Amino acid sequence: MAKIVGMEVLDVRFPTSRELDGSDAMNPDPDYSAAYVVLHTDGGPDGYGLAFTIGRGNDVQAAAIRALEPHVVGLDVPTDAAALGALSRALVGDSQLRWLGPEKGVAHMAIGAVVNAAWDLAARIAGLPVWRFAAGMSPEELVSLVDFRYLSDALTEQEALDILRAAEPGRAERIAKIERDGYRAYSTSPGWLGYSDAKLARLAEQAVADGFEMIKLKVGGDLEDDVRRMKIARETVGADIRVAVDANQRWDVSSAIAWMTELAPYDPYWIEEPTSPDDVLGHAAIAKALAPIRVATGEHVQNRVVFKQLLQAGAISVLQLDAARVGGFNENLAILLLAAKFDVPVCPHAGGVGLCELVRHLSMFDFAAVSGSDADRSIEWVDHLHEHFTDPAVVTGGRYLAPSAPGFSARMHDATLRRFTFPDGPEWTEIDSE
Amino acid sequence: MAKIVGMEVLDVRFPTSRELDGSDAMNPDPDYSAAYVVLHTDGGPDGYGLAFTIGRGNDVQAAAIRALEPHVVGLDVPTDAAALGALSRALVGDSQLRWLGPEKGVAHMAIGAVVNAAWDLAARIAGLPVWRFAAGMSPEELVSLVDFRYLSDALTEQEALDILRAAEPGRAERIAKIERDGYRAYSTSPGWLGYSDAKLARLAEQAVADGFEMIKLKVGGDLEDDVRRMKIARETVGADIRVAVDANQRWDVSSAIAWMTELAPYDPYWIEEPTSPDDVLGHAAIAKALAPIRVATGEHVQNRVVFKQLLQAGAISVLQLDAARVGGFNENLAILLLAAKFDVPVCPHAGGVGLCELVRHLSMFDFAAVSGSDADRSIEWVDHLHEHFTDPAVVTGGRYLAPSAPGFSARMHDATLRRFTFPDGPEWTEIDSE
After folding, report:
1. Which of A98, B261, B317, B390 is the most exposed place for a label (fewest CB within 10 A)?
2. CATH architecture group of domain B171-415
3. Are B372 and B343 in contact (CB under 8 A)?
4. Does B150 touch chain A (CB under 8 A)?
């Protein structure tokens, strides 16, 4: 049997702060980056994963991934749910490393990168994209992947099994539908804070012409600007297109409520990250005050325990999981099951580096095998940096096409890795010498 | 004016897993460790701080501290609240590094280590121990140190100012009382899971003889063992000594309630860390079910936002802040103010490496200048590894003596640093060659 014989970790950074793409109220100048991991094997394909960061500290993230090497190198190449469950448990269960979280932050994102790389590897060997590979597993296999610790007051193993069994009929039809029609996307491209009003209007108009049913604006910098931009967006797209807004954690509870009350006349579909991602009770208070405006969060929610509480408290109407924030596919499966239990739609966070590539697998798997529904669900789309991936996300007519190449789609081109490795790649050394 | 001219970060590890000291239900074999930081100056004293970990991953923690160097090197040496507030804001406010948390895990503990090193430096220059240095600041200066973001629904700046002003009368008397009588300690030394019943009984008896009014047992490994150990402890110490228990996050909500119901006949004073430190709602459910047994947590609570919610939800009756888990003195001041607002006693977590040394400053400062009370408050005491510190914590008659040496007491002896540096110190190279 083939073995994992090495782990390679690269610090890859894109100088996105040179433009204002990606600018928002909390992140004025991100350099979109990836701590990129390759699991080398002694036969067959390698496995690829990544943790997304926004620049400084990507080296710390890379160090955290390297700390997991002793758990990975020497393993048989994982090919099934049993092996993928065992790997996740070994990584999460390292009692010394656990102190660094537990299950949060740099150390937890590192686990996510490695677990996702292992899924990539297993799916490549199976010759399937991850979403189809996972959708081929039985409910029992899927449940065996999940760590139910700290979840049982909201979701038991039996309840999870019931959810998955209820979605078994129709799996094949839904897979066929995904392969035919893709999965709904929404566009964040018009709404970065750094853009002029004219650029906002032009991009919003273009998004509608391109088939998107929802766009999203960044807010939280200046109230007067936000009211004007929201008005422009609404007037540009008309009443039938959804306009969501995203404050990127900028507010306290009372300011979130006051600010959004000013934007309410323009019918915002959701307010995303109104406050700290750690503040379950704060989100609940905001949701109660602002209904029927939905509250959404998730890209910075650290693990399944916080998602559990957001759902228990009725704090969110939209759950925005992230492919690279939590402990990889396994924990995202737990989160999809929680969302299904509470009947809250999942609209994943994407953008950044590789997040669009990864997260489409999760939404498509969810539709095929977990929630069985795509109602009120869509995946964020930012048309940015996809050219660096060997199996890039493609959106046409406002829909993500189904990935068909084997794996989890995190692999970058060799030329990209050479050029953007920090601090020694030519993209960075040439800048420094200018 | 003197400047900070360099930052040195060391990976220091003690091979505590060779004994069973420190063993509990989640942490069977910790190697108590510190990512140790020195702020070198070009005149006057240097500043010392640390983040505590339990072995593997201490290198990742050290890397996270190093990532903060550009914010620190070149600064004027901080001497007052204005400079200490500005440094904390600069570290927390780095928008790229913030992505690694935000404000949690490895990246946040790194901020804590550096902020505490800056306090050490400022207090050394003032010629005072940190608790007295801080207790000499005005309410306005203290409030200027606090980041109120995400707190205003529970604690406003004005309310914080009112709390601090209310504690101004009597500061001098309370400082004198601390210097005369010290501060109440409780002992965890009898209760590690790895100890035999005979050792438990002997150490419990010794603790009472030594003047402690409370001891603590680790629980959560095996129910039958825990019932037997709790019975031994209660019979040994009698009805008047408090016996707290600590599950180190081992349980889900329902198992916490069921397990503690079995221990209830032996009158446990508090149950510490019954479940995930992230689970505010879980702690609230446990507290409601187990009253009048108190619920305590904090050593793994990631930041002020989670403490805020634990207090808002009535989830804890005892708040166990940790000197090295959150963003340093500044965030711990926010947490002390929240506890005072909600009238919940603070009983800090200690033990590990240097935590007893650091945290006594926080409790003594709290009594002097924030809550103004020491009722139902005590500091954990584990008599372990203190010999490595230049200003070690000393407990006699069940009370922490007031530290009087200038600084925050995190400095280790040079010989310790030479011997225990990982992986190149002789403590580790000699083991490897055995």
Report:
1. B261
2. Alpha-Beta Barrel (3.20)
3. no
4. yes
